[in-house]
Amino acid sequence: MGPLISVALCTYNGSLFLEKQLMSIINQTYKNVEIVIVDDCSIDDTFEITQIFAQKYPQIKSFRNTHNIGFNKNFEKAINIASGEYIAISDQDDIWLENKLERLMENIGDKWLIFSNSEWVDETERMLGKRTLSYDFDLGNRTFKSFLFYNSVTGHTSMISRRLLSYILPLPEIGYYDWWMGFVAVYHNQISCLNECLTLHRIHQSSVMHRFKGEVYKNTKIDRTDEMITNLKILENYKLLNESDKKLISKIKNSYTKQRLSTFIIRLIYSHYQDFFPDLKYRTGLSRLNFAFKFANKSL
Which of 72, 154, 156, 252 could serve as a FRET partner for 210 with CA atoms 20 to 30 Å apart? Predict the structure, then answer.
């Protein structure tokens, strides 16, 4: 039997799809698993469902917060309760392929974090023809710079080693916890990707993240800038950044904070396009300059 994997599953008004997700975790081919569920004060029967499952399956531990603490802090609580050598993150409404944990364990090696791919489905589990990562996604030799403008790591596809915890805890209260985890892991070259779809990721109107992102982008240009500034503030305060990396992140953040088109951002993207956007098509010359100008203008 391999090392214990703790599944950190946070719930909030998730009764509609929760039972199917729990069964997909219980039926994993990798058997040394505990499931830590923390409910963030649901007002439907989510917590009652978790209690029923906990009575039937001894590997499930069910907890409920006394007050709503929010998405990031709820995951932090679940992670702190977990006792496994590895911790897999779970959304409440997805469905895991039965070999998900087995494949992650086979491929994490000595890295602190591994993430995989997922197929998008709707409420009825109809395939939407979209994946979280592209078919040809490859980590390659990317650096932390590739995590400054966008995020490749999704929490619902990830598993982390306990060795990462001292670097990422406490989780930021705002922003995206998976972006933070990915940034820290890649900064120390402790990240791996298995580009296999091991999760059916459910997209629906009542999804916590769907509603959250919908609220974020009501005023697209302004809120995208605010999101970028928030994330850069979090990243620039990472305790183990070397001085030159910290200065770079701070300078990018300050350029966004000024809320005007920045020649620094344009020059930076033009000169280091491949470092910042390794997943986009290769560009040279005028095409790269146009992209740098449009990206800076669109974001600022």
Answer: 252
